[in-house]
Every structure is written in structure tokens, then in C-alpha cells.
Model the fold of this input.
Amino acid sequence: MERLKVKAILDKTVDHFNKYGIDNPRLDAEIMLAQILNMSRVNLYVNFDKPLTKEEVDRYREMIIARSKGIPVAYIIGEQEFMSLDFSVNEAVLIPRPETEHLVEGILDRLEDYKGDEPLKVCDIGTGSGAIIISLVKLSKRRMEGIGVDISKDALEVAKQNASKHNLDQDIDFRLGNLLEPISERVDVLVSNPPYIPTKDIEELQKEVKKEPLGALDGGEDGLDYYRQIIDEAPKKLRPSGIIGFEVGIGQAKDVASLLKEAGFSEIEIISDYSEIERVVLGINK
Ligand SMILES: C[S@@+](CC[C@H](N)C(=O)[O-])C[C@H]1O[C@@H](n2cnc3c(N)ncnc32)[C@H](O)[C@@H]1O
Done:
């Protein structure tokens, strides 16, 4: 029997995904096949006539079935790019989003003016895959001692794996616990992308998002529970003039900015993402 070739299997998969209402059928089909064939997506195009082995077709079929059930591509291939770095992901962690890159960039920008040669202590609350803290430590010109906190043991396993992948095992201390409780020292920078979806909106989420851990999404009645708790404790854990930075959900930036102001933070700044949505709130401790 003639073996299926790259172009033919991609076309068939796109038709199938269209029937299942998958949002980006071509992109998803290509990302998954590129991983199986261990080549870039661009290379698929110069290998359109390459025949697939039975084993490759079988593995691809399993991926197609999973994607048709609404499992996000990142979980299927076990990877997601963030700040041009590769992160391993599984169902224990939120898939790092492009919006969150604005938080990392905002902190890196503020650190440009930070004086002194001592390594900076930087803490990420609700670290998940470790995407934020790993990117900060990896990409900053400053030496950093990272701390990543999460309440999920399984998420911390993924974060540790990612730190190893980027040769940062010695630079980031991952701690299991509730918000700022595991932080006994004063830190220079506190960042967080906490769960921020209002409980009533969880049911309405896209089916892909609902495959992500509920503990990474649900921010309580108005979505602001975690911001209140973190901002309440932060002045005691941040050193004077230390930087705080949050990612926020749509429509939450002004509320979070007010919470920071009430807690005595200054130089409050709101940064919008590429869709002009207010995404990041930064401030400075007294
Ligand atoms: C929105 S996800 C962010 C993950 C990652 N920082 C990112 O930006 O991709 C929120 C994370 O907070 C963690 N989390 C939820 N409640 C927590 C708590 N009380 N203390 C510490 N972490 C918590 C969740 O397990 C999840 O990993």
C-alpha cells in the first residue's frame, strides 16, 4: 500500500479539524507533525512528498484524536515557547501565554535603572511552569537569585524540570506553599500572574482553557482575591524601593493599581499588550 505523504496527511488533518471546530486547524496540524518528524514547520513545506512510516502515522493519529477532544496543542506536544525559550508543559501547569511576556519585559525594563552589583532576590508567586522566573533569571543582565512558589507540587516538578533545561538549577529555589508564606527573607522583586478569572466566568471559558488546572484560573468572586492577599503581605516581604509586578485580567488593571496605591506603593504603571488590553501593573514599595 502506498505510504501517506506529508502534504496529504496535513490536508486530511485540516479537513478533520475543521469538522471538529478547531480554531487554527492548519497551524495545529503542522505543529504536531513537525514534532513527530523532528523538523521545523517551515521544513514540512520542503518535505511535502516525504512518505511517513507506519509508526509516525500512528503517533500522529493519537495526537489528532487528543486535539479533537479539545486538548491544547501545547499539552499534546509537551512544549510551549515563551520569551523565545522552550518550556516543558503538562496538565499540571497553565500554558504560558504571550500576554505574560509583557510582565517579564516590564520588570526587565525597570531593572535597567536598578543600582548596585549584589545579586537581586526575585520571587515569582504562583510560578506554574516557571516561565516567568526562569525568563527573568535567564534574560536579565543582573545576577539574580530566583524563588518560585506554587501551591501545586506537580506544577513545581514541571518548573524544576524547566530550570534544569535552562541550566538554572542552582539559581532558582522552588518552594511549595501558599502565596508569600514560604518567603521568610526580604526580596528585591516580587512578580505574580495569579489566578484571576472570576468564578462565575469559569464555566464560559473556551474548552481548551478548561483543560488547564482550575487552581491556576479561579480568582474568586471578582477575580481579585489573590491580588488582595499578595498586596496585603507584600510590603513586609519586599525591601524598601523593591519592585512589584502583576499580570492582570481584562478590566482589572485599575482595581489592582488602586489596591497597590492604598497599600502605599508608588510609581504605579499600567502596561497594555499588543491588543491594547491593560495587562500588567507595576509599582514600587515604600
Ligand atoms: C495563572 S497560573 C500562572 C502560572 C505561571 N506563572 C504563568 O504565568 O504561566 C497561577 C499559578 O498559581 C498557583 N497558585 C494558585 N493558588 C496558589 C496559592 N495559594 N499559593 C501559591 N500558588 C498558587 C497555581 O497552581 C498556578 O500555577
User: Anything to note?
Assistant: Residues 132 and 277 are 20 Å apart (CA to CA). The first helix runs from residue 6 to 19. DSSP finds ten helices and nine strands in the chain.
